[in-house]
Amino acid sequence: MDAWFHKQSKLIQVILLLIPVVNYIVEILVRWSAFLKKHGVIRLVICIIVTIPTGIIIGWLDAIWTLLFNKLLCE
């Protein structure tokens, strides 16, 4: 899922991260698939933080971060 997300244009990525319910689902899928591929303690902590209900807020921060730097926060 993370490879698919990163292949999308920046506009599509930002739109996916701005829509509240879609943003939460995309965050969970992208973060956990990246963790399963690359592992790491920091990725695990971010995955857990995104999975709890604060994931929507993290998704909005990721939308801004993606717009500015073309990657997700803490990636």
Structure explained in plain terms:
With 75 residues, this protein is mainly alpha-helical. The chain has five helices and no strands. The radius of gyration is 11 Å and the shape is globular.
Précis, in short:
With 75 residues, the protein is mainly α. 80% of the residues lie in helices and 0% in strands. It has one domain (2-69).
List keywords for this structure.
75 residues; mainly alpha; single chain; globular
What is the succession of H and E elements? Answer: HHHHH
Could you say which overall geometry the principal axes of the C-alpha atoms support?
Answer: globular
Q: Give the strand tally.
A: 0
- Overall pLDDT level: 89
Give the radius of gyration. 11 Å
| Class of secondary structure makeup | mainly alpha
| Low-pLDDT stretches | none
Q: How much strand content do the residues show?
A: under 5%
Count of alpha/pi helices: 5
Gap from first CA to last CA: 14 Å
Q: Name the helicity range.
A: over 70%
In total, the number of domains comes to 1
Instruction: Let me know the largest β-sheet.
Output: none
